[in-house]
Amino acid sequence: MTHKTLAALLAATALSTPAIAADMTVVSWGGAYQTSQQKAYADPYMEMHPDVSIIWDESSNDATAKLRAMDEAGNVTWDVVDVEGPDAVRLCDEGLAMEIDVDAQLAPGDDGSTATADFGDSLISECFIPQIVFSTTFGYRTDVEAWGGNTPSDLCAVFDLDTFPGKRALQKSPKKNLEWALLCDGVEKDDLYDVLESDGGIERALAKLDTIKDETVWWSAGAETPQLLADGEVVIGSTYNGRLFSVIEEQHQPVAMLWDYQVFDFDGWIIPANLPAEREAAALEFVKFATDTQRLADQAAYISYGPARASSQPLVGKHAELGIEMAPHMPTNPENAKRYLVNNLDWWADNQDDAEAKFQAWLVK
Amino acid sequence: MSAPIEEPGEVLAADGTPLKRSLARALRVQKLRALMLIAPLLIFILVTFILPVADMLYRSVENQIVSETLPKTVVALESWDADSGEAPDEAVFAALAADLQIAAEQKIHTKLGTRLNYENPGMASLFRKSGRQVKKWDLETDGPFKEQFVDVDEDWADPEVWQTIKTYAPKITAGYYLNSVDMKLGADGVEVRPESERIYLTLFGRTLFMSFVITASCIVLGYPVAWLLANLPMKTSNLLMILVLLPFWTSLLVRTSAWKILLQQQGVINDILVWIGLVADDNRLVMINNQLGTIIAMTHILLPFMILPMYSVMQSIQPTYLRAAKSLGATNWTAFWRVYFPQSVPGIGAGSILVFILAIGYYITPALVGGTSGTFISNRIAFHISISLNWGLAAALGGILLAVVLIFYYAYDKIVGIDNVKLG
Fold first, then answer.
1. Are A117 and A128 contained in the same domain?
2. Could you say which of B197, B387, B391 has the minimum Cβ distance to residue A361?
3. Does a structural domain hold residue B413?
4. CB-based contact (8 Å) between B122 and chain A?
5. Domain-located, residue B46
6. Does residue B113 sit at the A interface (CB-CB below 8 Å)?
7. Domain annotation covers residue A8
8. Pfam families per the record (chain B) (predicted)?
9. Is A356–B123 a contact, with Cβ atoms under 8 angstroms apart?
10. Is residue A14 included in any domain, yes or no?
């Protein structure tokens, strides 16, 4: 390479720096979920702001660890990060996420409500900008001969190997499984965490899980259960409701939803702490747009997760490609949410490590 | 009757400097040049390997966060008797109020809560909650603080909370290492964890056991293949070599997923067995999500690392030795066992070390096909790195794994001799 071309290249890099400043790195989960965000938020945003270009990074799965490593290295390259509620709490605790003044920095509801009132319960941490409500729930195969025509109607069918024999798929994590086990061991919903926290509470839940341990396949990625159900490897399994929607409505597999005692969770954005002022302002502008009433409702046209704003609910329409009404497929639909749990973030933030240790020790036994 | 030796005066070089010094200078230049030549590699290894390992080892004992976040409290706690069964007195609480106020201002109190929560569940919310309140207090006028703290959360009256803070006050802790061997730092020194929480020793044992089984299966399966590769005519052996290398070049995830499809209960192998009537349809074999699945998949994935060193050693064994042995009357077996096999041992040695060390740190394949009984210690390390963010514990587990590998390497050197290992 001659010196001339080298110099030209250097000059070109220098010239292109202003353009780099307008790049925004948005971290998400990949797959259908990221596509829904792209179509509902990013594409319209880039149309309005031609100078901004959004770069996607599919790292949400280990965002907490990566963000911590970036922070230690003093070089945070992300601008907006999509994380689940518990991760947001953790990142906020670690001082890795920026605190948000909800009413000042996010859009008010289209129906005139303040942002705080509109988001309501989904504001689970000072750093969290809520986006969707999703739930972890069960799906079962509708063609199991051994069930003799019975179909599961409540959660405890999962623990009933006599009526519903076959393999189960459960998440390889104590969260949700311990709650479900206790519910089917006769504990009332309101007493769940008192029992779990008492001496021998976790052990009691594990003893209940023990009854189906030999018949359980443990998953760690949300895509596993749909695959296992489709292959007939398991007859009933837990996963995120959007995954089951896609198995049932898009791939037309003989699978049905069991909404009983679905566990609600929130997913949303955080902005890394201590970003340079310019990038922070750009990130805030993007999340303000991406979490306004209309945008959250738009996302539901691409994926069956409920918008985190109350004011978005009436605007949820039809699926963009399948043309089916989305409201009945939302976890928040009253028909689906007769009995439910909400992920108890405070309890899990304190007891995750303890429960995890006991759960893992039980698993390897 | 020897001639008297002349007392040697100082030998001088052509330019008059003493030869010794002149030689030393020339050598020094040469050494420097050699050093410059290897400098890129040296720096590369230092930056990408030695420093990270050192950083990991440091993290596994580092524990400055408590004394940095609560400096006054730690000092005040020194005079508190941990066995008294009572919470400390007002002086400690006043120090805590002062420390927490600064910490809450800098938003680092929750970080400390997370750290202490690893040792005592409940500390995370205790610090989060208290930090929020303490910010509003006026240190000069609002005392005494003990009751106010207990009002915020009654856990502050629990001596166990204070024991945890006191136990983890030192800047260096053995806590992470103790956790990694199913023990913990209690108030009265080292304790064994209750049985329902013991996990790591089991996992270390299983990781070692399964790595041995995988290495042994690789030897058994790889040896005949390597022998064929080395002894068949070039045309056939090239084809065979491609069959060995093709999977080697295929993505790890693709190969693991392929095993999933083959081995699962509704998978190809079970379907065939059911079809030919060897296995009943309602009694299909469980070959995945357990140890068997991990061993099968990992043996397949690591096999090339065994075959290739074996092959290169076997290729250098002269066929004439075997012919000579046979012409001297040895049977086929004797000739193989007494003449051929001993010469191929260095290849087995090299392959075994490669496979064993790779196997012991594997985590993607066990995570995908291991279920609960086939996971390795590295899966727990990955968990603590990316999910629980307990990097200290992850570092301690990694440190132990590193020590185990070094011990095995040392033992191997003593028993087999590392000079006997040939990679080609």
1. yes
2. B197
3. yes
4. yes
5. no
6. yes
7. no
8. BPD_transp_1
9. no
10. no
A300 with A347, same domain? no
**CA dihedral sign of residues B67, B69, B75, B76:** negative
**Residue pLDDT tens, chain B, 424 long:** 455 555 556 778 777 788 888 888 889 999 999 999 999 999 999 999 999 999 999 999 999 999 999 999 999 999 898 888 888 999 999 999 999 999 998 888 989 998 999 888 889 889 988 998 898 888 888 878 999 999 999 999 999 999 999 999 999 999 999 999 999 887 778 889 888 888 999 999 999 999 999 999 999 999 999 999 999 999 999 999 999 999 889 999 999 999 999 999 889 999 999 999 998 888 889 898 899 999 999 999 999 999 999 999 999 999 899 999 999 999 999 999 999 999 999 899 889 999 999 999 998 899 889 888 888 999 999 999 988 889 999 999 999 999 999 998 898 888 877 777 766 5
For residues A124 and A197, membership in a common domain is answered with no
Mutate to test the interface with B, among A178, A350, A352, A358 (most CBs of B within 10 A): A350
Residues of B in Cβ contact (< 8 Å) with A61: 386
Please report, for the domain that includes residue A201, its CATH number.
3.40.190.10
- Minimum-distance CB partner of B125 among A65, A350, A362: A350
**Strands A23-27 and A306-307, how do they pair?**
unpaired
Domains identified in chain A, total number: 2
Neighbours of A92 (CB within 10 A): 23
Number of folded domains that form chain B: 2
Range of the domain at B408: 200-420
Q: Please state the ipTM of this predicted complex.
A: 0.81
Domain of B240, CATH number, reads 1.10.3720.10
C-alpha distance from residue B357 to each of B181, B208, B301, B344, B401 (Å): 21, 10, 14, 21, 10
Coil/strand/helix, residue B392: helix
Chain B: residue nearest A217 by CA? Answer: B371
Same domain, A219 and A307: no
For residue B199 the two structure tokens come to: 């996990």
Distance from CA of B378 to the nearest CA of A (A): 14
Amino acid identity for residue A246 in this structure: S
Q: Give the total residue count for chain A.
A: 365
Distance between CA atoms of residues A241 and A216, nearest Å: 20
